[in-house]
Amino acid sequence: MGKKVASASKTGKPKKPRKPKMTEDQISDYVARLEQAVGDNDKFLPIIDELNSAAVAELVAIASKFVSPMAASSTKKSAVERIMKRHQNLLSFKRKQKAVGGRSAA
Question: How far apart, in whole angstroms, are the C-alpha atoms of residue 84 and residue 67?
């Protein structure tokens, strides 16, 4: 009963939030390019390939503007997944519209 268990939490300074190395103009440029290419695999996927070489902070900033705000502590994988999800949702919507010929399914 007298034994102390080591804490799993770290003590000391809290982590500083990651700051993007890209400028706001560069981030806005990527967001604009994604907006123009969303729903078109031939245009969208090469931009995603470019973004895979970006740092985590840049991807999180781009995903936050392109889709919805994300925590600065988010991972690179979750940022790319969020960007891709918006693209996939639009592709799915287009396929469904084509399948029903623009008519209501009701």
Answer: 10
Counted residue by residue, the chain has a size of 106
| Distance between CA atoms of residues 97 and 99, nearest Å | 5
Tokens describing residue 20:
């993007």
For residues 91 and 39, the answer to whether their CB atoms sit within 8 Å is yes
Distance in angstroms (rounded) separating the CA atoms of residues 27 and 94: 27
What secondary structure does DSSP assign to 38-72, as a single string? Answer: TT-HHHHHHHHHHHTTS-HHHHHHHHHHHTS---T
Do 90 and 38 contact (CB within 8 A), yes or no?
A: yes
CA 82/CA 29 separation, integer angstroms: 18
For residue 14, pLDDT beyond 60: no
**Residues 20-58: pLDDT tens digits?**
688 999 999 999 999 999 999 999 999 999 999 999 999
Tokens 């503007």: give the residue.
Answer: 65
